[in-house]
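Action item from last week, closing it out:
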Amino acid sequence: MQRSGPLVGVRVLEFAGIGPGPYCAQLLSDAGASVLRIERPGSPANNASKVTQRGRRIVRLDLKSDVGREVALGLIEQADILIEGFRPGVMERLGLGPSQALARNERLVFGRMTGWGQAGPLAHAAGHDINYVALSGALHAIGKSDEPVIPLNIVGDFGGGALFLAFGVLAALVHARASGRGQVVDAAISDGAASLMSYIYGFMADGSWRNERAANRLDGGAHFYNVYKCADEKWISVAAYEPQFYQLLRDKLGLVEDAFDARLDRDAWPILKERLKTIFHERTSAEWRRLLEGTDVCFAPVLDLEEAPQHAHNVARETFIAFDGVVQPAPAPRFSETPGRIGGSCAENDVAAPTTLSEWGLDPQQIERWRKSGAF
């Protein structure tokens, strides 16, 4: 695989999981890291639609066997970063926990991705995205006044999980390269989701945020920061938060009524919201786009998953690309000197294990011995 990006030369060993672990590995791979994913024997064949598994090689190992563990430890010796997403204690029972791994590679960054973390009353309990987000306070804050709304698994798995794991292992890698000492990164989705709420907890502390849904400036309570249905049943978003943007919205829509002077009056918001609902429903989304898009009103159409890749801004920036026949988000963020790239689709991951291990610098004679023992 041809690599490109600021992480070229970094080796990441990923123990197969779902959700945040694979997405973290995708981010590292897109940025140039060489990622090797260990899967169980007999795991399903890969195809190009598995976007979060793009850009890395795969080796299938039985980690419960002696030879499987031996191969895994050999790879650990060559890795800069290890990522695993099992429940606490599983890697230790396999003989591949932090103590065993760091004994073989003292510079290793051992990244652990769980929902509840490695310690705490819930550490060993099962859970899913909405459970972790619920415990952080985020789920309570998102939704309609009468019920929370599930924010996909973006806030938990990917925002509070994968992004914090990626940040953590790269921060620890900087330390390892400076000190020669690796360490364990305990990334819990519940912790990360709570951290994402820092801004809102700050508002709570200064009294500018009510502890209820759809009652605040950023949660759908305000008329100037909301979504509205148009005449064609499509939706648009308006975020005229600051006074100058709000005034421009008034100018564009002809909102001359004195009632709209009460921009920050919570008691007036429901009435003003209903007024805007009526106004925006008088025209199609295309008509509103011609009037408002690209202005400082702070406006965007609410695009579906087929429309988003076709929008002129996304096309110009190549935010989405078609790779191996699958439309998918391009690597992000952008680097001026070392641009990232997709290192191959998931369908291209399956290469003969001896070739893959050789790419990682393992001894050819050892690889051949493992092959004959039936490790692969």
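Closing note: The first strand starts at residue 11 and ends at 15.
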